[in-house]
Design goal:
The chain contains 9 helices and no strands. With 244 residues, it is mainly α. The protein has 2 domains: 86 residues; 148 residues, Tetraspanin (Cd81 Antigen, Extracellular Domain, Chain: A). This is Tetraspanin.
Length: 244
């Protein structure tokens, strides 16, 4: 009775592994398709999904992110689904390895995010601030992206309004960017109003992250648990095939 029960358990886990990875494969294919669609024909995507997606797309180039995630999920789904279906030890080990690498990368990223937040702030300030001073007002696309970001997040520059002090925009217009202004215009002739300016985007984004840390943590923990379960199942199937 024991071998048949063990065989039934193996078959059940194998079917679950196939279905789970088939869902991942289909999800990856969908993301990849949407990513390619946005890249090739962003305009019709915007027309269908409206103004919200338009502002989001300006802030972050979502399409390449979707393509990358979709491709990774396709590979994982294929390795897990086909490997389990064909009882292939090689594909199951590849599946385990890919998921393990992603899991380690996520843990490393979480540790870095926790430990080096202040270092990230210093690095971002050192890299982004000179670019803002050089390109804001001179590069149309760069200016639009920053305007959309500042309007959405209700912030000004990376650190504060001084990020725009030597920018082409200020030299040409004689005023700070519109999203920076609180309650009317702020020109160089009105330095006493500078205290009214909104705080920098970096601090605002950090506050947003801290506010949503519980949700983000819960989602991350859920994903990590799924990854651990997937690795455990793939290793179980691998070991069972090894004993055959």
């Amino acid at each position: 009775a024991l071998p048949s029960a063990k065989m039934g358990c193996f078959t059940f886990i194998k079917v679950m592994m196939i279905l789970f990875n088939l869902a991942i494969f289909l999800g990856g294919g969908t993301l990849l398709g949407v990513g390619i669609w946005v890249t090739v024909d962003g305009q019709s995507f915007l027309e269908i999904f409206g103004a919200l997606s338009s502002s989001v797309l300006q802030v972050v180039n979502v399409s390449y992110f979707l393509i990358a995630i979709g491709a990774i999920l396709l590979v994982i789904g294929f390795l897990g689904c086909y490997g389990a279906q064909k009882d292939s030890k090689c594909l199951l080990m590849m599946f385990f390895s890919v998921v393990l690498i992603i899991f380690i990368a996520e843990v490393a990223a979480a540790v870095v995010a926790l430990v080096y937040t202040s270092l990230a702030e210093t690095l971002l300030t050192a890299v982004v601030t000179p670019v803002l001073k050089e390109k804001y007002g001179a590069d149309d696309k760069f200016t639009r992206i920053w305007n959309a970001t500042m309007t959405e997040v209700h912030c000004c520059g990376l650190n504060n309004y001084t990020d725009f002090t030597d920018s082409p925009w200020l030299k040409e217009k004689g005023t700070y960017p519109e999203p920076c202004l609180v309650g009317g215009s702020l020109t160089l002739a009105l330095p006493h109003l500078r205290g009214c300016l909104l705080q920098g985007c970096f601090n605002q984004i950090l506050e947003e992250i801290k506010t949503n840390a519980g949700v983000v943590g819960g989602v991350a923990a859920g994903i990590a648990a799924l990854e651990i379960a997937a690795m455990a199942v793939s290793m179980y199937l691998y070991c069972e095939l090894d004993q055959k």
